[in-house]
Design goal:
254 residues; 82% helix
Length: 254
């Protein structure tokens, strides 16, 4: 047990050392003029620019706008993905009926739908939420179907022997067995949602992280662009950590 903790601690330290070394090298190269400051601002300059953005509320306002859109679209898309995934996975007839449509629509990136969504829903919140919904829907749907298909046949047979009803089979055996795969889809879905909203906000938005980056680019403010990029990465990592923690708590038997 102590050895495992020691290995985890070593891996964590290595994970910290690598980015710290990269930042130090970045700073040194910036000081020597090797890196073009109009493109890659020095880390010290980023810190100087970050503090005002944090104090005047610009960063928090844009981050909050993006998170609200992601949460709304993700909840809708994930809910639809789980419900349809259970239906398609449990009923072979439903799977056959939807196989052709799923095969065509699944490879289409959510961002490719933005022009159509803007024409149909306008440039308001609805089109951005729709992009998030599409981005989160497919990972959840496919992993839910896979989870249903991956249920141990012996458990199904045991349920039949015990004369469980259809509802009891689904709620007591199939869904719990498919939970690990479903949570994998939820994790992929939230990651996809966070990526898609940033791209959608770059095209049509008046607030959000994508808007902040796009505006900074137009104003030739590389420091603000990089701050926005790093903020997106850090928040994405935090979201992933939260989902993993929830998975460990809910799917405790895995």
């Amino acid at each position: 047990m102590n050895r495992k903790r020691g290995n985890k601690g070593t891996a964590f330290l290595i994970g910290l050392i690598i980015p710290i070394c990269c930042i130090i090298v970045w700073q040194i190269l910036g000081n020597k003029g090797v890196i073009n400051q109009a493109i890659m601002t020095k880390p010290t300059t980023l810190v100087e620019k970050f503090i005002p953005l944090l104090k005047n509320g610009t960063l928090l306002r844009n981050l909050t706008a993006s998170l609200k859109r992601v949460l709304t679209g993700y909840v809708i898309g994930a809910f639809m993905g789980i419900i349809l995934g259970i239906i398609i996975g449990f009923y072979p007839f439903a799977e056959k009926m939807t196989a052709f449509m799923v095969g065509i629509l699944r490879p289409i990136p959510a961002l490719a739908c933005i022009p159509i969504l803007i024409l149909a829903l306008g440039i308001g919140e609805e089109s951005k939420i729709a992009v998030i919904m599409i981005g989160s829907f497919w990972p959840v749907l496919l992993n839910t179907i896979q989870g249903i298909h991956g249920v141990d046949e012996k458990l199904i047979q045991l349920g039949n022997v015990l004369e469980k009803s259809r509802f009891q089979m689904i709620s007591g055996i199939i869904i719990p067995s498919a939970f690990p795969s479903i949570f994998t889809g939820l994790r992929l879905g939230i990651s996809s949602s966070w990526t898609n909203i940033v791209a959608a906000e770059m095209i049509a938005a008046s607030a959000g992280m994508g808007y902040m980056i796009s505006y900074a680019r137009e104003m030739s403010q590389p420091a603000q662009v990089l701050i926005g990029i790093f903020t997106i990465g850090i928040v994405g990592l935090m979201i992933d950590i939260i989902v993993i923690a929830l998975q460990k708590k809910i799917v405790y038997w895995e």
